[in-house]
Amino acid sequence: MQQPTVIIIVGPTAVGKTAAAIRLARHLGTRIISADSRQCYKELDIGVAKPTPEELRLVPHYFINSHSITEEVNAATFEELALQWTSEIFRKSPYAVMVGGTGLYIRAFTDGLDAIPPVDQGIRTHIRHHYEEKGLDWLQEEVRKYDPDFYSAGEILNPQRLMRALEVRMSTGQSILSFRTKQRPQRPFGIRTIGLQLPKGELHRRIDQRVDAMIRAGLTKEVESLVAYRSHNALQTVGYRELFEWMDGKVSLESAIAAIKTSTRQYAKRQMTWFHRDLSVRWTDPGTALETLL
RNA sequence: GGUUCCGUGGCCGAGUGGCUAGGCAGAGCUCUGCAAAAGCUUCUACAGCAGUUCGAAUCUGCUCGGAACCU
């Protein structure tokens, strides 16, 4: 009997992943798990380029509108949920389709994350506050004091990594390095990854058009309605950040829109860097009928 | 026509005799619980010509280009 298989579609933003995934899922008669760290939020809509309601009706999607921006969602959350959803889908179909641009989430799903005990929220908040007040020097000093191994091996210029190392050390009493098992769990299903890409010029054109379309669709209104939540992590998002700046009167709408386009191109580039490194990805262009690649 | 000021890399911008300004954009990259995040590396200069000087983006002259004011 054939092993059930997850077909993962990756690629930069605006390349056409959503449409390709829907075509494939319909062809296979299965469902889609979105692997997108922003489309899961029900409050975010225009700016995150979700599938349309019609598309969602065509194929059931998981991890779309499934969470609130007030909830904490991260790669571990995704790993756990996606594994549940996969086995749910496999009860009815030998295939599941996963599509998205969040490389870390996809890796968490395919390769697993090391089991690190949950971090005490008080400790986390404490560290964040101190960092904001005292800066990187303080953070480096703390890490050097409490987790010298990480200090000498880790990214000491990256505040996020330092804070993570410190909060794990403070919560568990152990270095984050001690949790790194280097063991990849064996998933009970096969995985095929297909990468979608376009020539850079063409992708950039699509990005520009999509941003203009978002503005026409009322992105400024959507952003205005979310001001109260602007400090939430979910709002640290291309399209929203730039328009908050505009609302603050710091930039004109025109330059905010230009900034969204630039940020989106930079994001697309980071995605390509991430996915190109994965040599198991089979690359094609978004026009290809993906079922022919299986 | 005259006077004054200005001309720095794709853009912004500091420097005023010797020492890589910096930022943005671009290019390349990193990635184990906020990842549309965070971080790292990196290219392109001193408008042109001549002169002074051991040494000029910096001083002098001329040329070109721009701005302001005067006539």
Distance between the termini: 17 Å
Name the overall outline: globular
The biggest beta sheet is recorded as: 6 strands, parallel
Summed over residues and divided by their number, the pLDDT gives a mean of 95
Low-confidence stretches: none
Beta-strand fraction estimate = 5-15%
Helix residue percentage: 40-55%
Strand adjacency order, main sheet: 3-2-4-1-5-6
Number of helices: 11
Assembly type: single chain
Give the tally of β-strands: 6
**SSE order in H/E notation?**
EHEHEHEHHHHEHHHHE
Task: Please give a structural write-up.
The protein is α/β, with parallel strands linked by helices and 294 residues long. Helices cover 49% and strands 9% of the residues. It contains 11 helices and 6 strands. Strands 3-2-4-1-5-6 form a 6-stranded parallel beta sheet, sandwiched between helices. Strand 2, helix 2 and strand 3 form a beta-alpha-beta unit. The longest helix is centred in the middle third of the chain and has 26 residues. The radius of gyration is 20 Å and the shape is globular. It starts with a strand and ends in a 10-residue tail after the last strand. 32% of the residues are buried. The structure holds one RNA strand of 71 nucleotides.
